[in-house]
Amino acid sequence: MLIILFILGAVLIVWGIYRMKTDDGLFGKKQKSKNIFNLLLMGEASGLGQFLSGILCIVIGIIAFFVK
């Protein structure tokens, strides 16, 4: 079960990084400013949720490993 958390976390991190680099935003010239405007205007930054969820899955997997 722990392996699934680590694999899912890694997939989510890679997917989040890919989306943060490739998705278009409404405003901004650089990708970082596009993600910031998307976060402020729409309440979401493209890929940020997947990235943070992946980190959270890996952290939960590590905690579960030590508790077990």
Query: What share of residues is helical?
Result: over 70%
- Tally the helices: 3
Largest sheet: none
Number of strands: 0
What is the straight-line distance between the termini? 11 Å
**Which residues sit in consecutive blocks of at least 5 with pLDDT less than 50?**
none
The secondary structure category is mainly alpha
Gross morphology is elongated
Strand content: under 5%
Mean pLDDT: 82
SSE pattern: HHH
| Gyration radius over CA | 15 Å
Characterise the protein shown here:
The chain is an all-alpha fold and 68 residues long. It has helices at 2-22, 31-42, 48-67. The model has no long low-confidence stretch (mean pLDDT 82). The chain is elongated and about 45 Å long. The protein has three helices and no strands. 16% of the residues are buried. α1 (2-22) runs antiparallel to α3. Helix content is 78%, strand content 0%. The longest helix is centred in the N-terminal third of the chain and has 21 residues, at 2-22. The termini are close together.
Please give a quick description of this structure.
Helices cover 78% and strands 0% of the residues. With 68 residues, the chain is an all-alpha fold.
